[in-house]
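Before relying on records like the one below, remember that each one covers exactly one chain. Contacts with other chains, cofactors or solvent are not represented anywhere in the record.
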Amino acid sequence: MSVAPPSPEQPLTGGCLCGAVRYEITAAPLNASYCHCTRCQRRTGTAASANVRIPADGFRVVRGAEALRAYEPPDGAPKVFCTRCGSAVYSGNPEADAFVGVRMGGLDIDPGVRPEFHQFVDYAATWEPLPADGLPRYGERRG
């Protein structure tokens, strides 16, 4: 079964665990991937973060912007989370960046795209082996 790409008329929706934050995606995802960097491990509490990359002009928070805060590392994109439940919601700045990275676990339905690669595998958690899924692997950020 094929999933229609999101549009302004039929957006892809998602949000945080407690429901305070809700967002809409109205543009087709550019791609999806797994990130194994230590920053994602610590931010999510998991071995890897599954992310879908969305054009910034196709992403908007529709409820709960006041509950969002961002950790802004000196050498990376802002990591935006809900202050009420702690959910990692997205990374990037929708008002200044070309795209945002939305956490796939926060989506309400299948986004119609699958992770295409693993990046930062040089930092992968030793306690969870990388899956033998045939996807390309990059030691650092994919070029």
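Residues 38-44 form the longest helix (7 residues).
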